[in-house]
């Protein structure tokens, strides 16, 4: 059974094909050892397609959807155009390895593409993340780091701003109350003088 890997980077979606699994075996320890060597890992995993995000705002939208376990139209298009077709009623001859089981179940439900998320897939994706800039030749040095930094800041800012169920809400209110008390004490002491 063929194994494809979905990797969501800060600069776009990448699909990899893991085809030399006989060389390293199906056990996690063998994958863990082969990940550090690019020559050995490059024989096992090949880039099938890379679809960059159109803008930083698009990257943030895609990242938010992935973190919530939602399948966007862009991701669905990437998967349907680059993976073999799944025939209705027949067992698929491939599976898609994803890092998050939530997005995997959403992909399987909507597109009928079988997904798996286990320790073996996690190790393969760790190797992809480690050597990603070498797989995608179009990126200039520093582009990936800038994209990761920018997306990280935007994602964190958006999550802090829009999270209404914040746990630190009481801390923020307590600090505001202390500031108000401090101002009131200063005001009263000025009047007493």
| CATH fold node name of the largest domain | Nucleotidyltransferase, domain 5
- Gyration radius (Cα, Å) is 23 Å
Helicity range: 55-70%
Biggest β-sheet: strands ordered side by side in the sheet: 3-2-1-4-5
Major β-sheet, in short?
A: 5 strands, mixed
Strand content: 5-15%
Total individual domains = 2
On the 0-100 scale, what is the average pLDDT?
82
From the 3D coordinates, which CATH architecture of the largest domain would you assign?
A: 2-Layer Sandwich
Unreliable stretches covering 5 or more consecutive residues? none
**Shape annotation:** elongated
CATH class of the largest domain: Alpha Beta
How many helical stretches? 9
**CA distance, first residue to last residue:** 84 Å
User: What is the succession of H and E elements?
Assistant: EEHHHEHHEHEHHH
Count of distinct strands: 5
- Class per helix and strand makeup: alpha/beta
Domain Nucleolar protein 58/56 N-terminal: 4-69
GO cellular component, one term: small-subunit processome
Pfam families: NOP5NT (PF08156)
Protein name: Nucleolar protein 58/56 N-terminal domain-containing protein
What attributes characterize this protein structure?
single chain; 193 residues; alpha/beta; Nucleotidyltransferase, domain 5; 2 domains; five-stranded mixed beta sheet; 9 helices; 5 strands; NOP58/56_N; Nucleolar protein 58/56 N-terminal domain-containing protein; Nop56/Nop58; snoRNA binding
3D architecture notes:
The protein has 193 residues and is of the alpha/beta class. It folds into 2 domains: 2-162, Nucleotidyltransferase, domain 5 (2-Layer Sandwich), CATH 3.30.420.220; 167-192. Helices cover 59% and strands 15% of the residues. The chain has 9 helices and 5 strands; from the N terminus they run ββαααβααβαβααα. It has helices at 21-24, 28-35, 38-44, 56-67, 73-82, 101-111, 119-135, 143-162, 169-192; strands at 2-8, 12-18, 45-52, 94-97, 115-116. The protein has a 5-stranded mixed beta sheet, sandwiched between helices. Helix 4 (56-67) packs across helix 8 (143-162). The radius of gyration is 23 Å and the shape is elongated. The mean pLDDT is 82.
């Amino acid at each position: 059974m063929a194994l494809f890997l979905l990797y969501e980077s800060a600069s776009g979606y990448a699909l990899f094909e893991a085809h030399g699994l006989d060389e390293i075996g199906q056990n996690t320890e063998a994958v863990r050892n082969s990940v550090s060597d690019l020559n050995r890992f490059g024989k096992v995993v090949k880039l099938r397609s890379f679809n960059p995000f159109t803008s930083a705002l698009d990257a943030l939208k895609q990242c938010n959807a992935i973190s919530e376990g939602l399948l966007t139209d862009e991701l669905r298009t990437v998967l349907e155009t680059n993976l073999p077709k799944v025939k209705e009623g027949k067992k698929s001859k491939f599976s898609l390895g994803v890092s998050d089981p939530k997005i995997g179940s959403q992909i399987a439900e909507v597109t009928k593409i079988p997904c798996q998320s286990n320790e073996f897939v996690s190790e393969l994706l760790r190797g992809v993340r480690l050597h990603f800039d070498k797989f995608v030749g179009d990126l200039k040095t520093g582009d990936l780091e800038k994209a990761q930094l920018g997306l990280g800041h935007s994602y964190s800012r958006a999550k802090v701003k829009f999270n209404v169920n914040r746990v630190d809400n009481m801390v923020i209110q307590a600090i505001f109350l202390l500031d108000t008390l401090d101002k009131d004490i200063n005001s009263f002491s000025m009047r007493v003088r």
